[in-house]
Design goal:
Radius of gyration: 23 Å
Helix content: 25-40%
Strand content: 15-25%
CATH superfamily of the largest domain: Glycosidases
Catalytic activity: Endohydrolysis of (1->4)-beta-D-xylosidic linkages in xylans
Number of helices: 16
CATH architecture of the largest domain: Alpha-Beta Barrel
Keywords: Carbohydrate metabolism, Glycosidase, Hydrolase, Polysaccharide degradation, Signal, Xylan degradation
GO molecular function: endo-1,4-beta-xylanase activity
Mean pLDDT: 94
Number of strands: 15
Shape: globular
Number of domains: 2
Organism: uncultured microorganism
Distance between the termini: 54 Å
CATH topology of the largest domain: TIM Barrel
Structural class: alpha/beta
GO biological process, one term: xylan catabolic process
Amino acid sequence: MKWIKVRLDGAGGVALPEAQLKTVYASGMDFEPDERRLRILPDGVVELAVAQCPYMLHAKLSLPLYGNIWVMAHNKGQGYTGDFVDFVTEAIRTYVFEAQERSVNIVLSPATKAHLDAALEFEHRANRGHDTGENRLYALSHAIYAAEGALFEAAQAKAFASPRSDLRLGCNFFRYSSPNSQYAKYFKQAFDFATLPFYAGRTVPEKDKYTYGYIDSALEFLEANKITPKGHPIWFGHAGVNPKWLYGQSFDDLKQSAREIARHHVETYRGRVDVWDAMNEAHDWANCFELSQDQLVELTRVCCDTLRESNDRATSIVNICLPFAEYVAGRFTCYGSLPEHLRSPQAYLKALLDAGVDFDAVGIQLYFPARDMVAVARMLDVFKQLGKPIHITEMGVNGGIRAKPGSTGGGQAWVSQQLGQSEGVWHGGWNERTQADWLEQFYTLAASRPEIQALTWWDFVEPSFSGNGAFLYEDENPREMFFRLLALKERIIKK
């Protein structure tokens, strides 16, 4: 480990606000975070402990024209080895590099070309001493827009030229009431893949007593409309979804309970539900039973093996959240113990592979990713290297003012929750239009990547987990992104 200095100047050439300075952390080139250890020096320079070399840097900044977002600096993909980084200057270089690299084989749209030209001009003016701090922030904002635009336009060219017949488009299917509802009408227009709720608190409220009333009703509709169902999840260590009878058990008893639940779910619906999230968020984030990291790996093995034994034709998915793992840098968990070193989703999945755990696909959640699309693409590159197909199992961005039901907003409790870790402002502010724009950009990017085999939004109707993030309002009127998805399907899905 060594200490480096990071300069983050804002308008007027003075240091950015302390709240933004405190977000800085280092990671390896694979986004694996170092635990954040920093101090702010009297001149506003951040002194930061770095454990990996080469390293990249991340800071959550408020940028003019863009919003509040995690920004990366990676030295043109090579990383840093030195002891000092001028973060904003290096971030401009990073995103200009990304824009230029991703536009080699395409003609940029006027909008994207304009952003790239603006980034270079504002950087030039800053270097000549004209409003240096402010112009560097404008240059960075334009550079991120340019990099995203180049990525999106290259993905469009690829995805539109080769529509996919193997890409499933889905959503959770948690509030179905009848085949005559607007919910049912709109769902079958948009999707061929549906996630059904198998949370133990709903399906096994008492030991050995299984209740599948909603599942049976929902399956009848899905099967009639040729929509592939997925069971979610076989196991999830979140305090809000587990029945009381599971608590207080020894680890051996807990494994046996998991084995029995998995077997009953899978055998009951064998041939009807053949895709399953075998394990959900078992990487030190949702760990209400306070298991060790080795025990979480072993419990994942139990669920995956039992799924395979109960239905050898089923697809098993290991689902993770917070793929950038900012919680590792900040030492946050949602429920459970706080190990000496938190395990990121990537490290957890590598541990499964090292242990020989048998599963078919990696599931990635992508809520409110306060990351630009280029960072998202680079993160997907990292997970692709695991050698498994990828399902985007849950995602959501909001269509208006952020309002999580029952939340007062802000404070340490909110920061430690999943959405508080990833929440940000994209392209000037969330509304129906930016929500639809985000969906179009990400779905196009995903369609251009053959390793991504399924895209599942969360939720279909309000209230939604991501807060104003569903396709339908409470009255079941559709948001703009519903129609954007229907139009995009015509270009990315082979008929």
